[in-house]
Amino acid sequence: MDLGIAGKWALVCAASKGLGKGCAEALVREGANVVITARGAEALEATAAALRALNPAVQVRAVAGDITTEAGRAAALAACPQVDILVNNAGGPPAGDFRDWSRDTWIAALDANMLAPIALIKATVDAMAERQFGRVVNITSAAVKAPYEALGLSNGARTGLTGFVAGLARQQKLASRNVTINNLLPGPFDTERLRSNTATIAQKGGQTFEALWESRRKSNPTQRFGDAREFGAMCAFICSAHTGYMTGQNVLMDGGSYPGTF
Asked: Three-state SS for 40?
């Protein structure tokens, strides 16, 4: 299937590794030009080089910086001639007990997982509407539908973003002009973040990492963890020309872990 996004410009956040990288790879395969951003310059440049090798016909620009800051967002936006596709993504806040979190801890989580995505949406959607094409995908978490006890910071911040998007996506001046805003909710994908959170939970629970990792794998109906490439493929489809009638949705990718009907 031709996704109809060749030549479009995409800004992909936290794209040096993990799910963000998977999304950038899928967009590049479809012929989209990408600006990728992340805090770690070395990993980011390595990813940029790999993306250029993947499809030499597209432009790939790497901007190292902190997307949670105004300066980081300004630098990323300045590198992108126009933002046709925005993939909001940020490393999730650490696991833990809410009794240990200060106000500063909460503000940091909100800045990364709610306020920064909103700021980027604000900076881009009106121009998308003028061009009659725009796709925003917010990478949130399966915890939005089924909160994880140890991920209270993520539960709160990402659910806040979800509520905001539910209203914004349905504005006629966006939806009627082919601008869609959707959320992509990953469950357990084999990423550095999942391994880090598993290690934290295992330590607190007096288990070994290996035992908990294997237990989590076996508890999934697919008997495996997700792969970043299949996540990226779903992201690229949501960003495609075929999804203009899909907006304000929460697309769950969790291998069937969520037990509900709705």
From this structure: coil
Rg (CA), the chain: 18
Distances (CA, A) of 19 to 143, 200, 212: 16, 20, 22
What distance in Å separates the CA atoms of residue 183 and residue 137, rounded to the nearest whole number?
5
- Location of structure tokens 């601008």: 179
Using alpha carbons, list the distances in angstroms from residue 51 to 26, 31, 62.
Answer: 10, 11, 10
Instruction: Give me the pLDDT at residue 198, please.
Output: 87
- Tokens of residue 73, six digits: 């967002």
Contact assessment for residue 185 and residue 142, using Cβ atoms and an 8 Å cutoff: yes
For residue 205, name the pLDDT band (cuts at 50, 70, 90): confident
Within 13 Å and on the Cβ side, how many CA atoms surround 92? 33
Least Cα distance to 229 among 43, 30, 20 occurs for 20
CA distance 149 to 183: 21
CB 181 within 8 A of CB 169: yes
Q: Determine the residue type at 146.
A: A
The pLDDT confidence band at residue 87, using thresholds 50, 70 and 90, is very high
Q: Please, which residues bridge with residue 63 across strands? A: 37
What letters, b where the CB count within 10 A reaches 16 and e where it falls short, cover 67-94?
Answer: bbeeebbebbbebbeebbbbbbbbbbbb
User: Which residue from 72, 80, 69, 16 is spatially nearest to 42, judged by alpha carbons?
Assistant: 16
Alpha-helix runs per DSSP H in the chain = 18-29, 41-54, 70-78, 103-110, 116-131, 152-168, 172-175, 192-204, 209-219, 228-238
